[in-house]
Design goal:
The complex is a heterodimer of chains A (248) and B (309). Chain A has 248 residues and is of the alpha/beta class. Chain A contains 6 helices and 13 strands. Helices cover 27% and strands 30% of the residues of chain A. In chain A, the strands form 2 sheets. A 9-stranded mixed beta sheet of chain A has the order 9-8-7-10-6-1-4-5-11, sandwiched between helices. In chain B, 60% of the residues are buried. The longest helix of chain B is centred in the C-terminal third of the chain and has 15 residues. In chain B, the strands form 3 sheets. A 7-stranded parallel beta sheet of chain B has the order 5-9-4-1-2-3-10, with helices on both faces. Classes of the chains: A alpha/beta (248), B alpha/beta (309). At the A-B interface, helix 3, helix 4, strand 7, strand 8 and strand 9 of A face helix 3, helix 4, strand 5, strand 7 and strand 8 of B. The structure holds flavin-adenine dinucleotide and adenosine monophosphate (AMP). Adenosine monophosphate binds next to helix 1, strand 4, helix 3, strand 6 and helix 4 of chain A.
Chain lengths: 248, 309
């Protein structure tokens, strides 16, 4: 099987985002960036499938600025085979990302696409499902387990009430949840090797996709601040406080 | 103007997320129809008809809808959308699974997890784990929106909408339901509970999680939540996770026990009315947002609290 894994360059999850004073967005100047954690899980799953000889080739795709090449390199060091950078400085919305990915699927013809369930910057949780719809493929979202059963994939999904397992005919789209696996760190030799792997550089226009945003950002504001309250001395004091505010 | 709201239900019962989504749809405006797609789901459809402000309930029956397969629900919803200006789905795992498929088929950009409707094209939604609130204006001909339940209170009162049976596509679909393992509990449902008691990594084992967290939750009539670290370690099931990538809750009382307060956890609970934190580290970040902070060993404090309540 050939697998396509879209990887997004986002703010490092350990950094606290700051809203710009002019309300136009979040300040990303000189901020540490990283591969979206759910995309790391997606790459790891593809690499494990390759190690089990279920998968023969892993193609990584990132849509973003020139620096998104570094994100692809991380995935190549984890075990990806080659990369495609669709370079643009625009903030590309999930619908346009899904359209670009569809065009890449049409030419690369993978049997499986593994995306993250959510990008931790826009928190959209849309791209994988949109891609599946555009391709008319089945989807296994929020995956915590994936097994190949004959010519089908069984995907266990983290749903609100617990776990659900669905069977998907291939080709299919999977989106990863946190418990699917624990991504490996790329070793130094693998990072060196990854430097030699091929990354094709394209533009959205090469795929005929208009990335003009459909949603206009009116403003970006700080959330309501919550003040720290008080320290209570002991359990009795806590119970008295909770009673006084009617919380119990 | 007309809005189609996707009902969240378990065939025999309607989930509270549906009524909350209807409240958001009412703020958007126009006639509101609720779609109940299920299998033997007449009782869920009847319950949806009682939500105040609903014009009619569309009830579609089919085996593929018994577990809300996204492929089947998409095939049902997309043709219906010719009669609607907007599709509102609850931001539950079902809604998140389906709505982007509908949006892509309609060639519109979805607005995810709205927390406020400003007008019929403008919405607020949190981004960056709730560290920024974005106001977006959608110029799309049809709006596709998912609604964060914790931000909308279900309206009081009772309606009497008609229930209309509609035809449902029968497939075949490229996905099939295999099995499910659902948590059974008599406790309130986490997403809509008035009180929540959550445990973190400090609980150190599933046994201790159950031994210390559950009795306190029962004493308070609370739902049980957990941090990602507690879920990853297997102390609590996945559907207990509160946070940016888990459930978002806003109860009257949230008790965080042995949870440090990472931004991803705060994203899921910082809109709670009263927050209590119990942590042995007096510099734990959770204390920066807690109304009442109790510094100390949870293994001493929690049993004492449980017995004194
Ligand atoms: C992509 C991504 C998504 C994430 N999504 C979520 C999410 O949705 N929800 C979520 O919760 N996290 C999420 N996280 C993880 C988050 O960053 C934190 O790692 C996690 O919340 C930490 O859990 P914790 O507070 O239980 O553990 P820790 O951070 O280890 O904190 C344990 C706390 O217990 C205290 N403690 C220890 N022993 C005792 C004792 N005996 N008595 C009292 N206190 C004690 C310690 O002082 C410490 O503060 C996500 C992370 C990433 C990267
Ligand atoms: N610009 C992008 N480049 C590559 N992959 C992306 C991009 N945006 C989204 N994705 C993929 O879609 C997933 C979900 O993103 P989102 O729908 O934005 O929350 C991510 O985890 C990625 O796998």
């Amino acid at each position: 099987m050939k697998v396509l894994v879209p990887v997004k360059r986002v703010i490092d999850p350990n950094v606290r985002p700051r809203v710009k004073a002019d309300g136009s967005g979040v300040d990303l100047a000189n901020i540490k960036m990283a591969m979206n954690p759910f995309c790391e899980i997606a790459v790891e799953e593809a690499v494990r499938m390759k190690e089990k000889s279920i998968v023969t080739e892993i193609v990584l795709v990132s849509i973003g600025p020139a620096q998104a090449q570094e994100t692809i390199r991380i995935g190549l060091a984890m075990g990806g085979d080659r990369g495609i950078l669709v370079q643009t400085d625009m903030a590309v919305e999930p619908l346009a990302v899904a359209k670009i990915l569809k065009a890449i699927v049409d030419s690369e013809k993978p049997d499986l696409v593994i995306t993250g369930k959510q990008a931790i910057d826009d928190d959209s949780n849309q791209t994988g499902q949109m891609l599946a719809a555009l391709l008319d493929w089945p989807q296994g979202t929020f995956a915590s387990g994936v097994t190949k059963e004959g010519d089908k994939l069984n995907v266990t999904r983290e749903v609100d009430g617990g776990l659900q397992t669905v069977s998907l005919s291939l080709p299919a789209v999977i989106t990863t949840d946190l418990r699917l696996n624990e991504p490996r760190f790329a070793s130094l030799p693998n990072i060196m090797k990854a430097k030699k792997k091929l990354i094709d550089v394209k533009t959205p226009a090469d795929y005929g996709v208009d990335v003009t945003p459909r949603l206009q950002v009116v403003k970006v504001a700080e959330p309501k601040k919550r003040e720290a309250g008080e320290k209570v001395a002991d359990v009795d004091a806590l119970i008295a406080k909770l009673k006084s505010v009617g919380a119990i | 103007m007309a809005v189609l709201v996707l009902a969240e239900h378990s065939n025999n019962a309607l989930n509270d997320a549906t009524a909350r989504t209807v409240v958001a749809a009412r703020a958007f405006g126009g006639d509101i129809d609720v779609l109940v797609a299920g299998h033997n789901a007449r009782s869920a459809a009847d319950a949806a008809a009682k939500i105040p402000g609903v014009r009619k309930v569309l009830h579609a029956e089919g085996e593929a809808f018994s577990h809300a397969l996204a492929e089947a629900v998409e095939a049902l919803v997309v043709p219906l959308m010719s009669g609607y200006d907007a599709f509102f789905a609850p931001a539950t795992t079902t809604g998140k699974n389906v709505a982007p498929r509908v949006a892509a088929k309609l060639d519109v950009m979805q607005v995810s997890e709205i927390t406020k409707v400003i007008d019929a094209s403008t919405f607020e939604r949190p981004v960056y784990a709730g560290n920024a609130i974005m106001t977006v204006k959608s110029g799309e001909a049809k709006k596709v929106v998912t609604v964060r339940g914790a931000a909308f209170q279900a309206a009081a009162g009772s309606g009497a909408a008609v229930v209309e049976s509609i035809a449902a596509p029968s497939g075949p679909f490229k996905a099939a339901f295999v099995s499910e393992e659902l948590q059974k509990s008599d406790r309130p449902e986490l997403a809509s509970a008035k009180r929540v008691v959550s445990g973190g990594r400090a609980l150190a084992s599933a046994e201790q999680f159950n031994q210390y967290i559950l009795p306190l939750a029962d004493k308070l009539g609370a739902a049980v939540g957990a941090s990602r670290a507690a879920v990853d370690a297997g102390y609590a099931p996945n559907d207990f996770q509160v946070g940016q990538t888990g459930k978002v809750v806003a109860p009257d009382l949230y008790v965080a026990i042995g949870i440090s307060g990472a931004i991803q956890h705060l994203a899921g609970m910082k809109d709670s009315k009263v927050i209590v934190a119990i942590n042995k580290d007096d510099e734990a970040p959770i204390f920066q947002i807690a109304d009442y902070a109790l510094v100390g060993d949870l293994f001493k404090i929690v049993p004492e609290l449980t017995s004194k309540l």
